[in-house]
Amino acid sequence: METNSNKTTAAITHLSALTQYFIPFGNFIFPIIIWSSKKEQSEFIDYHGKQVLNFQLSIFIYSLILGIIAIPVLLFTIFNGVSLEALINDNDFIWSQLDLGNLIGEITFGILLLIAFFLLKVFEFFLIIIAAINASNGERYKYPITINFIK
Question: Where do the TM regions start and end (predicted)?
């Protein structure tokens, strides 16, 4: 049976990942601070701290992969057929040189990857809330699609 203090600390550890919306890399900084300062007090807090960090690292890697694929596809698609000289010399660049009609498949693929990134972030938000609720109820929660970096 976990104490209310341990349940609250575990829930706050999960919720601290939401600081990413206000502070860059807050989703790593604050969970690490809370987890490292309290992990010796309770095995419950240690478990939830590892879960938060593993999930955030996994989401970061998935986001990087989507970005590495989506951004070059969109840029290549948009600027395909435009000469490098026209891009360098602003005076010669004419927006009518962009021919997007023949590249609808690549554009669609790039847009779908951006939508997947957005859905991943929405999925992350709701999973953090669910994990915090479970931690506050004294339950162990394991995030789906998580790579276990910290065991």
Answer: 12-36, 57-79, 107-133
For the chain, the C-alpha Rg in angstroms (whole number) is: 22
The alpha carbon of 104 is separated from its chain's Cα centroid by a whole number of angstroms, namely: 27
DSSP 83-139: -HHHHH-TTT--GGG---GGGHHHHHHHHHHHHHHHHHHHHHHHHHHHHHHHHHTT-
Q: How crowded is residue 2: how many other Cβ atoms within 10 Å of its Cβ?
A: 18
Q: Using CA atoms, how far apart are residues 103 and 4, in angstroms rounded to an integer?
A: 57
Q: Which pTM value belongs to this model?
A: 0.80
User: What is the number of other CB atoms lying within 10 angstroms of the CB of residue 90?
Assistant: 7
Element (H, E) at 82: none
Count of beta carbons in the 10 Å neighbourhood of residue 122 = 9
Distance of CA 85 to the CA centre of its chain: 37
Give the count of beta carbons closer than 10 Å to the beta carbon of residue 116.
15
